[in-house]
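The pair is quoted verbatim underneath.

:::
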Amino acid sequence: MNLLQRRGWLLLGSAALFAGGLLGVACGPNKTNGDGGLDSGGGDSTTDTGPGQDGSKPDGTTSDGGGGSCEAGIGGNCDIVAQNCGSGQECAVVATDGGDLLQCIPNTTGSIKEGYACTPSNQSNPCVAGLECILNRCAKHCCFGDDSACGKSVPEGNTGRCDLTISVGNITNAYTACTYSAGCQPFDIQPCAVTQTCNIKDSNGTAVCIDYASADGGLPEKAGCTYANDCKDGLICAGNLDGGAAICQWECYVPPGPYDAGITSLGAGKGGCPSGESCKPINWGGTAPTWLGMCGK
């Protein structure tokens, strides 16, 4: 048996697939994936909902009766969330002759705790048993949406969120892990680093900083896009309000909401729109905050 050499990642909370066409967040080509390989940004994950979010059971179960708290989309004889293996072992994905499975494997070298920085390795897990080095942090496995299962990043103190779904080979929604991104506020109210975009992740308006999908930074207005972190900060990757392929478009503020209504006059990227365009409310089935709009003519 060999540990898998590649996994695909898809951030589902901060990549919430709004009904209007917002797409998933890609790990950029400058980011290493959980086991040392490079993720091209297209990834091998095409899922659009979290595990069990459509009310159906994923194929395969990870539980062997050991008290697992949720099911993953990949089968095996252990539970990656409950970590119900014996002392000195962890539940992890392995490649077998019969396909990819969750199995108990030895963990004798890992010492880094949850939320601390780590360097991925193909040879061993640098994290303590039950954690995985993902996005260069030792991350806990969790049930999608259960943020209470996640700790904080150290030393930054960023709150962990259970919003990263990992695909393994052709298995989407294989399992879910915590991420530890910094929080932000859209419209440049609380900006991210220059290499990141502030990405609104849910209908409550929760927003986190996400690295651009490309090492060259975000795409400009009207550029064709695939992922929510393709576009420059302040732009949203979505289909046109009147239909059409996804492009980078300015997001804008629709009062009332949590911000001062005056920001609507500050121009594109600050809450308002470019000259000749107005802010159109987005009606995406309650998956976007009511105050989020998109600029158009």
